[in-house]
Predict the 3D structure of the following.
Amino acid sequence: MARSTDMTAFGVAALGIFTYSIMDAIMKALSIANGAYSAVLWRSVAGSVMVGAVFVARRQPWPGGPALRLHLLRGTAAGLSVLSFFWGLARVPMAQSVALTFLAPLIALFLAGLVLGEKIRRAAVYGSLVASLGVLVIATGQARSGASTDTLLGSAAIIFASVLYAASLILLRQQAQVATPMEVTLFTSLVIALLMLAGAPWLAVWPRLDQLPIITAAAVIGSASAWMLAWAYGRAETQLLAQVEYTAFLWAAALGWLVFGEQVSLFTVAGAALIIAGCVVAVRGPRVAAPQSEAAA
């Protein structure tokens, strides 16, 4: 029964990553047009309004103090992460950007041990070394291709975003144990929107009328992805679901080529393969299924 639940959660998480990849392509276009800050701001506002309307219509209870604290912490981590990621994504090809974010599952393994009490295996240390080689290969490819300073800064921003994303994965696991997927989705978007609104008078760029449907689509797709990931993380361990992140490379490579005409270099492919291999090494071995919480059921 536990195995069946794990596989269902893995499948839902994989679908969540696929839809998130589509949103990444939309957000890359919006970030190039209006800047990453405005892209994240308006997507979060739109998502909060849409999910909030459903939340109120279904008369969902207001979360308690402990849950609100988790929502605030994860919303802050996720907000800074997506802002850094989309700023970098506007400057770095999609496949290369996603390859660098594969460090997040590996970082999440160590954070899961420190925060959630999940066992950190010796293999995780070996895997981190292999993954580090992958990052070096991607960096070497950038150097050989004469990457601009802007591209290098974009890559650094994406690596920083992956650290914050790893922290948000751990907090998501905790959120999913005490809140419904809808509540997690709403309050994550709401906290991000409030954080972004703080700087809106000085930094925001108002979207053009023809961009409103695109922003709405990004909000709908992003909210659906967040709901699926919250549902999955309420039913399986972090170290199992973190592996589903690797499927994003295929979607990013395809969407980057189809939408932006981006080519994937051999250095990016080799670096991604090393990072994925390192993460696979890190999570190998027996695993104990996580218990399902009543809140997530």
